Q: What sequence folds into this?
DNA sequence: AAACCCTATCAACACCGCGTCGAGAGCTTC
DNA sequence: GAAGCTCTCGACGCGGTGTTGATAGGGTTT
């Protein structure tokens, strides 16, 4: 069961003990190696040995720092997710401040930017989700957060009369959030039918607006 | 390089020679075993040995019939894709017959049904795409087909004045088609935020209509 | 019927990636 | 200077993949 978490002494559950000697650099070196390699090739083509060598240690020694390759990636994803959540906070304020269209665009742009700036990690998250229950759970929570926020916005707009009624807000939110995930993923990989880096936001925003307001012109 | 195609004597590129002896049943047995197991568990948890045993042969003998596990799955996906393409033909006629809203719903329903009826295979396709270039290419062509059809519909509706202008038809089509893929995938796996089996169509149709017509009420 | 060939089969092998075990080496620190 | 940490790695076992070589049987050719 190559999953993750179980930890040697004590810590957040992933890495190692709290903190201390110089070997702490090694942990960082492993994480940095992983981030670097993920920008070059998919997770499935990176082995524990690659991570160990990249950090200047042997494969068994790697296991002193992390219980598995998945655990390393999960740690990295965790950080990305936290960073993305911060972006969201910002955008939400704007949305609440009564600028739905500009706010929405800003929110989608921030989200896109957060993942775009760590392309490799984002793709690794999608890949890991397929085989790793912890990754699935983590991503699930992330999605749930965005869905809840989106649904709240839709409901707010409906009850102030700016958006027409229709399918349940939460259901629309789920589809929209999943659309963004898939569209962004395609753009990052550059797979065959995919949106251009510089058009993706315009297209997503238009679909969100039309879906929420029934038309691209609110009210 | 565990990819596929290279074939022993001559055939479609995947399986074996044209046709002949009794060992032909074996080939079918392998394919059937794969389909059966894929309804039970993900591709990554199925080994060549599982397929061989399921077909009543040893692992080396499996390699007489297929060059790899991937090749088996690609063959199966190929068939599903062909079946789905047929559904699309049907729905396109309806769309062309001047019933855009009913036709669109029918098209999405047919597509959903085609993949729903082979849930396991559909999920395997998504999984294989991540690691196998042939699968990526195949899926890419499938998506391209749907995108082209969708874009054509949008353009037709715009030029007859039923749909308002907006982002380029092809760009909207890409996002919509990818949304469907992701939303359906989520529904099939039952992952955490996901649409209910029986709500998914209503939601997708509403988003498509609003995106294309600017409102859920055409014209 | 013996030689030959083609289909089909599998035991045994080589390889790779993962994760573990046990034996240290180098530091404190008492 | 012995005990006790942190850190390191050689060597192992496991499970998966794909290949090799030997072989058995049916189908023809001669």
A:
């Amino acid at each position: 069961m190559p999953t993750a978490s179980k930890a040697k002494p004590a810590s957040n559950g992933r890495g190692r003990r709290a903190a201390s000697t110089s070997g702490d650099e090694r942990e960082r070196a492993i994480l940095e190696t992983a981030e670097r390699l993920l920008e070059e090739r998919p997770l499935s083509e990176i082995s524990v040995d690659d991570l160990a060598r990249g950090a200047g240690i042997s494969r068994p020694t790697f296991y002193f720092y992390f219980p598995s390759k998945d655990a390393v990636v999960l740690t990295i994803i965790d950080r990305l997710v936290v960073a993305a959540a911060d972006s969201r906070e910002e955008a939400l304020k704007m949305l609440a401040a009564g600028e739905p269209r500009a706010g929405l665009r800003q929110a989608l742009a921030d989200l896109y930017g957060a993942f775009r700036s760590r392309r490799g990690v984002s793709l690794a998250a999608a890949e890991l989700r397929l085989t790793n229950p912890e990754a699935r759970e983590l991503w699930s929570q992330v999605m749930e957060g965005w869905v809840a926020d989106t649904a709240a916005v839709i409901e707010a707009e409906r009850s102030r009369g700016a958006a027409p009624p229709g399918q349940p807000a939460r259901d629309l939110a789920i589809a929209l959030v999943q659309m963004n995930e898939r569209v962004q993923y395609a753009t990052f990989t550059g797979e065959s039918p995919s949106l251009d880096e510089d058009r993706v936001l315009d297209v997503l925003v238009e679909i969100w607006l039309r879906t929420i307001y029934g038309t691209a012109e609110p009210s």
Summary: Residues 2, 21, 47-49, 59-60, 63, 67-69 of chain B lie near DNA strand D (CB under 10 Å from a C1'). Chain B touches chain A through 43 residues (CB under 8 Å).
